[in-house]
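Bug #77: duplicate submission created two jobs. Keeping one. Sequence:
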Amino acid sequence: MALKTRATGTQDRECYAPRGFPGVGGGVPPRGPAVAPRRTQRPQRPSRGSRRPSKSLSGNHFRSDLLVTTCWSGRYHGVVQQCSVCGREFAWSGRGPRPSACGQRCRKRRSRSRVPAVMREQRRWCARDGKRPMQLNGFGASSTDPSTWCDWSEVADRPHGIMLGHGLACWDLDDVIGPDGVLHPDAVRVLDRVGADAVWVERSMSGRGLHVFVRGGGESRVSGHVSYYAHSRFIAVTGDRFFL
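Kept job's structure:
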């Protein structure tokens, strides 16, 4: 015996009543209403806010009114940002204030850092892409063209660095922090010599090097783990202060 049923949100469809349905052969009625069997069809992409398919009370069939819902899960990765502390790229949803740090660890490192005024007051700052100096308009910056530089306040909320010169120099110590935190002897010698007069000391982007900013001039020189730059050089500033 066939009977007409109607599922919410669907057209009338014909199905055969199961054994034991009231009025058909007697017996104990099943739990829940009779539901039309699921049609074989290609499900469509659900709209925002749609529900996942739920099982009916009468058996293992999905409810026909929710059949169009499938398990698609589109994940929005957001806008790619670069952390101003570690330089790592991370995703931003595009909602709320634009973040400048990738996580709590980098936010704490940045909050503990205080770039001194002697560096902030100079108009020698640039945004950066990795270690490459960039202008605010997206073009590359030049270490010999002051028109491509800007104030610290313009790049404080993004990865940035400073151009050396005008009395500001830097000792760049590469790979001098060991896995156990012990400094390389070359770094110890430099810090013993200029540490007391250092303007700012911080870890480099790799976390294994040091930037020791000092007031000075002269010629640049490179030797092993130790490099000294006094002008025409861009240094990425991480803000991860290293306490002597």
